[in-house]
Amino acid sequence: MKSRKLFSMLAAGAAILSISVSAVMPTAASAQIGGIVHDPRNYAQNIMTAARTLEQINNQIRQLQNQATSLVNEARNLQSLPLTVLEPLQAQIRQTQQLLGQAQRVAYDVRQIETEFQRNYRSLSMTGPQRMLVQGAEARWQNSVGAFEDAMRVQAGVVGNIEGARQSIDSLVGASQSATGALQATQAGNQLLAVQAQQLADLTATVAALGRAQSLDAAQRAAAQAQAREQMRRFLSDRRPYVPGNARLFGN
User: Fold this and answer.
1) Do residues 176 and 82 make contact, with C-beta atoms less than 8 angstroms apart?
2) Per-residue DSSP letters for 178-230?
3) Burial, 51: exposed, middle or buried (Cβ in 10 Å; 0-12, 13-18, 19+)?
4) Less Cβ around it within 10 Å: N or C end of the chain?
């Protein structure tokens, strides 16, 4: 707008100058000695120079406008997303970890698992009294029942996290759709990936808890079979062997 106004003012000035010169031309022409002589060529060149200068100014103004627009777009692209769901996701992951940490008896520890299996599963003592055999079977049964209870607790916690994940997804999708720049859209996408990672962590915890319960149950059944064979052997060996005797008839 400013360049157009400047051009109009310059054109109006040139027109006024042309009228003024035309008005004094008869006097100048009649008084050439000691007077001012008008040169039409010089006047035309001055007008063309002024027009070219004005065009250059217009070009510079357009460049400045483009640069300003580019800076505004860059500022929008650098604006950070005002929404974050990192803390709720971390809280859900910590809750799942706490549930896994509450595992009963045989926990998620490599050394503890090796010790427990060496004592109650792998090398069963079949030479002890019947009372020790019953106690070992009871301990293994409690391990299995506790593992299934732990698995159900983890599953319940994971199901409870579904609502939180849904709320996070809704918020992030809405924020990405109303993003003003590339950075906000990228950050919304990264947080959606974080929600997916949290759900994968819950799935991993569920599979681990259920696998632990199934493994302990399978080990308990294998140990129970070995103990049943030993108890059957003892039962058969404790019975007195049959000794034939002399039979009497009622008539004798």
Assistant:
1) no
2) T--SHHHHHHHHHHHHHHHHHHHHHHHHHHHHHHHHHHHHHHHHHHHHHHHHH
3) middle
4) C
Low pLDDT (below 50) residues in the chain: 2-3, 6-7, 10, 13-34
CA dist., res. 108 & res. 101, Å (int): 8
The position carrying tokens 């209870």 is: 149
**CB distance 132 to 194 below 8 Å:** no
Return the DSSP state at 118. Answer: I
Cα-Cα end-to-end distance for the chain: 146
Sign (positive/negative) of CA torsion 47, 50, 54, 59? positive
Q: What is the pTM of this model?
A: 0.63
DSSP state, residue 80: P
Helix (H, G, I), strand (E, B), or coil: what is residue 240? Answer: coil
Nearest of 154, 157, 143, 137 to residue 231 by alpha carbon: 137
Domain regions of the chain by residue span = 2-77, 86-238
**Could you report the per-residue pLDDT of 111-125, keeping only the tens digit for each?**
888 888 888 887 666
Task: Compute CA distances 116 → 4, 55, 231, whole Å.
Answer: 90, 90, 22
